[in-house]
Amino acid sequence: MTYKIVYDSAANVIKPAIENSSSVPLHMIIDGVDYVDDATLNLDQFKVKLQQCEKSGTACASVMDWMAAFGDAETVFCITITGALSGNYASAMLAKETYEETYPNRQVYVIDSKSAGPKMALLVEKVTALIADGMDPQAIATEIEKAKRKTELLFVLSSLTNLAKNGRVSPLLAKVTGMMGIRVVGRSSTAGEFEMIAKHRGEKKAFKDILNEMAKSGYSSGKVQIAHHDHLDGAEKLKQLIMERFNTKEIQIVATTALCSYYAEDGGIMLGFEIQ
After folding, report:
1. Confidence of residue 124 (pLDDT cuts 50, 70, 90)
2. Which of 103, 149, 150, 262 places its Cα 20 to 30 Å from the Cα of 190?
3. CATH number of the domain located at residue range(s) 3-149 in this protein
4. CATH architecture of the domain with residue range 151-274
5. Is the pLDDT of residue 76 over 90?
6. Where exactly does CATH 3.30.1180.10 map onto the chain?
């Protein structure tokens, strides 16, 4: 049986390091120009355009984009950005239906991550490990649904402009955050929606909240991934705090790609972690 793992670019994995996997790009529309979140995008130029733009938005991948990524695999595991934030899950489900109708002996498992960024990346790693263990496809799908409930996403944001533009938070909250230098601490809810936890002046208190939320969630020593939008110093500080409090051994730091850069904005940090 041939397997393939497919995920959209909200996972921050544009150049797959995993065999038999591929990233399906999302799109950012900046002042009418379509920026495709793939390996060809000049991320530095994109970020400049994003800061200077008057109008912006995002667009999901097409059904044909998903179909092309499925290739000729007999079994596909497809992980998408939260359906509460994007139509990409719905697009992937339509692709699944078409693919399975065209190839009746093939199967696509579409998984709404209810999240983005580091949590998605950890779920991709989990699928990879389960395939390597020789588990059958239906059992893998069941385990990934369990893993979703034991994997969390927290974030610290210094700007909510793009979330407000896309109707995810109130424009008033976004305006106050931008004017007062506030750091917003939040999470991806169980429904996959933006959920604010606290607001702070300064990053030190925000990071303290992150550690406390990890502990409340039952975190002890699972995998952690930190994604940052041009804020490596902050990511390193947060990594050190997590290591000191939880003695975590496996913490990965990555830079956000275009889609996560769009929502995290300059200085934003996203944190995914597994609860064992």
Report:
1. very high
2. 262
3. 3.40.50.10170
4. 2-Layer Sandwich (3.30)
5. yes
6. 151-274
